[in-house]
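During the first year of the project, the team set up a workflow for recording each protein of interest as an amino acid sequence followed immediately by a discrete structure-token representation. This format lets reviewers and collaborators read both layers of information side by side without switching files. As required by the reporting guidelines, we include two representative entries from the current panel. The first entry is reproduced here exactly as it appears in our internal archive.
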Amino acid sequence: MEFIWILCAFLCGLGVKVLNMPPLIGFLAAGFLLNFLGIEASSSLDTLANVGITLMLFCIGLKLHVKDLLKSEIWAGTLSHKALWSIIIASCLLFFTALNLPYFSDLDFKTALIIGFALSFSSTVCVIKLLEEAGEMKTRHGQIALGVLVMQDIVAVIFLVLATGKIPTIWALGLFGLLLVRPILYRLLDKVGHGEMLPLAGLFLAFGGYELFYAVGVKGDLGALILGILLASHSKASELNKALMNFKDVFLIGFFLSIGFTALPTLAMLGMSMILSLFLIIKFALFFIIFTRLKLRGRTAFLTALSMSNYSEFGLIVAALSVDSGWLSKEWLVILALSVSISFIVTSILYKNAHELYLRHKETIKHVELADCLDEDHFIQPKDVRILVVGLGRVGRGAFESLRQTLGNQVAGMDADRVRITSMAKEGDNVFFGDGEDADLWEKLDTREIELVLLALPTIKDSSNITMQLRKAGYSKQIAAIARYQDEREELLAADIDNVFNFYTEAGTGFAEESLQLIGLSSTAASEQQAT
């Protein structure tokens, strides 16, 4: 990567972060700025972008379970949205054609339908970045969004086969044999350990899957996704995902920069892309209505629809194929590239405030949902609980197990990762599924007997939001949370949290306390001996 790319991406990313907006907006701006300055993109930028997308799809696979794709809210939601959206948008575009607007005058129904289809996809890159930054990949709405994105990828593969005429070779049938190879892949991960070999194994598997599928005439990115799905049940799946996180994020910067290098727009093109961006309102409304009709709760439907309300980089692939086939003028490639960029910015800003938007319009949203929601969305009321641990990752689960040794089933755990909850429940743990940032949950949960709530969550924003919702729901007893740094600790204390545990500085104290017990001493007894 050339230094000028790094410099521009860093300055623009830092600039928007100072303004409290997602850095990806700055990376998009950096691409257009570099293009405006006359700096040409080399093939290495496209390589970086492709590497980032491949790693991202592999990481998505590590968090996905095939049975989720068979749920009606996933496959029916995806297909019905695509069909309705394509027809609605094609009709709107033909209306603009009748008005003789620039670039619309030459459209017929076929080309209008192609543009509508191209814009029906949501951006995997944008959605995943938003969910990761919000710590919501394992939540109910995060898992639904992931499932819809995967279904869209399957539709994309089918489209590319039909559009390009490149039918996979007969050897593609051998890909089903990967199911037989999975035990070997599991043993491979067991052998690599936890050091530098683990991320290297991840890179090998991600790009190995890409090359394998590409070699038999199937979209290579789908291979990375499938390999990830095959490994999703392995005990190291989460660790492998974390090991690849930084690699993926750095390479994806190349993707955001590459969008800006598509072409420089004219004012007329910018105007047309702004018009297309207004259709995002229709995209959100259509997703929301479809999801609620499929019996999702209003909040789940709202958050999923908001995260999916953007245009996809795949739209540019569809546009490029259409331009090569003579169906669209080359100006449409620029218009769609601008529309994709604008949609990223809009979704990033709106989703950052998604929970506040839901609280503001909660009554209206709940009025739309069906009375009989899906079984997965029913709340569970824990009984005879004195302490509730919210978040059962490494720190939360450690706290939960330690407290359980003293208080037994008077300690309950709650987590938004249904797979984790199912696994712990099978072991006899007193746990239940719930999204801590769900205001509806705290309103319906009876917390009168709960004396202490422990928030073991990955971000201080999550802890602050949950505390606010707990207090609004009438909870007045003790709340404790974890922090990594001193400034985070101070911010959490200011958010009406009673105690904040800094596990970087205080973990040593806990380690020393438990170690003293090995020789029959406590820290208090050791101090008394020292004094005498």
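The second entry, processed by the same pipeline in the following quarter, appears below.
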Amino acid sequence: MSFAQVYTRSVVGLHAPKVIIEVHLSQGLPALTIVGLPEATVRESKDRVRSAILNSGFQFPNRRLTINLAPADLPKDGARLDLPIAIGILAASDQLDPQVLAGFEFIGELALNGDLRQITGGLAVARAIKAEALAVNTAVSSKDVDHTKKDMLESAVAVQTPQLVLPLVNGAEASRVEGVEILGAESLKAVCDHLQALTNPNASYERLATVEPAPAQQHTGYQVDLADVKGQHHARRALEIAAAGGHSLLLTGPPGSGKTLMAARLPTILPDLSAEDALEVASTYSVADSDYDYGTRPFRQVHHTISAVALVGGGSRPKPGEITLANRGVLFLDELPEFERSVLEVLRQPLEAKQITISRANSQMTFPANFQLVAAMNPCPCGYDGDPSGRCRCRPEQIKRYQDKLSGPLLDRIDLHITVPALPIADLQNAQAGESSEQVRNRVSAAHKRQLTRQNKVNNELSPSELDSYVTLGESEQQLLQMAQQRLNLSARGYHRVLRVARTIADLADSEGITSVHVSEALSYRGK
């Protein structure tokens, strides 16, 4: 046979679309041509594949080889296509049975000696395979599918459970996806032995073992604890509200008042991630090739010199930025006015939409950005405006220029505005330790569960129409909000954010209704 077809996956953004590798052997001078929009890394695979095949004990065909990567209009990059290309060449040259490849997908980078090296995006690939299998199963069970198409789908499903062959070092992360059989291999020879064992069960070929899912990680605790924060009861309360409802938070105060200390402890009181959210976060970090402690909420602290592209993502082929790496977690911006204003303004749309869409001439990517923004700033350039010692020497125009670096629309999108005063040393020495993170997290988790039971989302994600359903105000509460709107110049967005915060405060108090006490506290967290 001179033709073979192998299935694999590319990684585009956070998605892993299917790629069909077609290999054709024909007469003519020996040559190897790869078509189908391959990028530099893929074009270079021909030399890696040739050496890997020869060093694995197989023959490299001395004929004209044409390799097509379909669909042709999808860019393919990365060395993860090495393994499927090698398998396709061996199948097309009759060194492997092409029929046995049904139901398999292959990804992996080849070393020159045939070993398989670690690749990025293994978890994203496994999730894409599972999603495709679920879509096929849904189509099979649909009553709207005609009988001919239904028979074809049923035969496709009946082949076997989807199987993914990838480097053994990637097996642990990919095995977290249920419904896909993960086969980890250390070399091209091991993969070929497995395929030949399926063709000839009586032969002495060794099969690949299925990689078992890693045991669920137990929460071992954080290195920091909210009990480290002494005093600052108002700020601690705001942290609890932010954690319970997924709200954004701005901490303003002089240097050394504990703003960074408190922000770093917000993840310790957040509710645990759901299994699906944990997979989503881990998949993002797998594509970005970044370390991630599976099952924990991300905490990303970025420097004020960061660019807009690094913050929201981008590039000629868009890649996720810091707001996507902070998805389902916390993005902390310290010294907020020191960031370039153009950088901060790109946060406005993601804070509302919980996602970011990046458009380029030849592609458009949408990345998740459901993060909690926590920011900290000084009240003036020197940091001591309003300090009782009177040591601030900043002129009014300097203070105005400093605070004007933050636009009104951006500040309007932050739910909680807190002033963190500096505590005297005597108060710090005499202050008792506050509640621990575990104690606060128990209350936060209970409030979080109430929200999911009632509306299947946290309060910060409620739309204006949903607020009408889940937030019912009495006459006194409505009058209070009307007075506040006049005094605080609340915009429509600010009004809705007050309602969301009030709903969270009521959930923390285990109250179905929202009272004037809840609304008053929510209003106390609005900025000037």
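For the second entry, the following points were noted during internal review. The chain has two domains: 3-199, 226-431. The longest strand covers residues 18-26. Both points are flagged for discussion at the upcoming steering committee meeting.
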